Amino acid sequence: MQAQLDTIDREILRILEKDAKTVAKTIAEQLGLTKTPVYERIRRLEQDGFIKNYAAIVDKEKIESSITVFSFVSLEAQKGHLMDDFLNQVKQFSEVTECFVVGGEFDFLLKVIVKNLDAYYNFAKTKIASLPNIGAVKSAFVLNEVKNENTFPLL
Question: CA separation (Å) from 100 to 7, 50, 106, 120?
């Protein structure tokens, strides 16, 4: 798929990643092009799945105080259907904003956002620990968020 992206496509993606509300006319001006081919390229990037969706990134601290916790989860047995069951359950938890299958000591890494430590304790106890086949859960609490980028490093 990378071969389908030329330099102009990559520049368009960089601009839209920084601000998805940037209109085709502005992008065209920045790239020294006309509006129509830029608009057509954006449509193609959307249709081909290079642009999955557009989203507003909210300032969570302005909405409500919260804490971010990274939970490392291992299962008692790493059988395919048990891993699938775990993933299907985790997808239902609104507190889990990201979930990764990882190699090493643990099977999964969850990014969890909750209101406070009590809320995390309740989440861990009633949701994660109550799932079948849980072997261990270890948590790392974020003290300070230094960098949080929602962009893909287009090389």
Answer: 31, 21, 11, 19
**Mean per-residue pLDDT for 57-80?**
90
Torsion from C-alpha of 116, 119, 120, 123, nearest 10 degrees: -160
- Listed in sequence order, the residues at least 6 apart from 72 whose beta carbon sits closer than 8 Å to its beta carbon are 105, 106, 108, 109, 110, 136, 137, 138, 139, 140
Greatest pairwise CA separation for the chain in angstroms: 58
pLDDT in tens, 89-123: 999 999 999 999 999 999 999 999 999 999 999 99
Q: Do the Cβ atoms of 99 and 91 come closer than 8 Å?
A: yes
Residue 4 DSSP code: G
Q: What is the enclosing helix (H) or strand (E) of 82?
A: helix 80-90
Rounded to two decimals, the pTM is 0.83
